[in-house]
């Protein structure tokens, strides 16, 4: 297996980007549902597919992040459809950007996490030199 330079720095960045875009997407979906005056049941149905991934994301399983990529594709389709509707709003644009960010970050996190399982761990001196 090939060695990826700065793998743990990349993992740290992808982890932050994934969690940030994930949290912001959940908030944006909830705000958009409230803005459109949807019932709480519809808002819950919108959020539940994303909330299912929290246990696997906390345990940092790379398969969870891979599956999250597939689920975000459904949100991408719905968001693009909403953008072409007559009742679109600013939340739809933000949702689209967050879905793209979440897809990209979780895909890279999944890949780099998988590589990290087979790459030897950094020693303390190597980790310190990479941070500087």
Which structural category fits the helices and strands? mainly alpha
Largest sheet: none
Shape: elongated
Which blocks of ≥5 consecutive residues have pLDDT under 50? Answer: none
Q: Please indicate the percent range of residues in DSSP E strands (runs of 2 or more).
A: under 5%
Oligomer: single chain
Q: Give helix % range.
A: over 70%
The total count of helices amounts to 6
Radius of gyration: 17 Å
What descriptive keywords fit this protein?
mainly alpha; elongated; 6 helices; about 80% helix; about 130 residues
Explained architecture:
- With 132 residues, the chain is mostly helical.
- It contains 6 helices and no strands.
- Helix 4 (62-83) runs antiparallel to helix 5.
SSE arrangement:
Elements lengths: L6 H29 L4 H12 L2 H5 L3 H22 L6 H29 L5 H8 L1
Outline:
The protein is an all-alpha fold.
């Amino acid at each position: 297996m090939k060695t990826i330079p700065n793998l743990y720095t990349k993992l740290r960045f992808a982890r932050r980007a994934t969690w940030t875009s994930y949290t912001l997407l959940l908030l944006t979906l909830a705000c958009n549902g409230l803005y459109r005056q949807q019932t709480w049941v519809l808002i819950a149905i919108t959020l539940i597919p994303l909330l299912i991934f929290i246990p696997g994301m906390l345990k940092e399983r790379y398969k969870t992040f891979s599956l999250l990529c597939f689920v975000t594709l459904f949100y991408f389709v719905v968001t693009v459809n909403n953008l072409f509707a007559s009742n679109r709003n600013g939340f739809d644009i933000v949702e689209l950007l967050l879905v793209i960010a979440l897809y990209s970050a979780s895909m890279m996190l999944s890949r780099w996490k998988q590589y990290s399982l087979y790459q030897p761990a950094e020693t303390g001196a190597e980790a310190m030199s990479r941070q500087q």
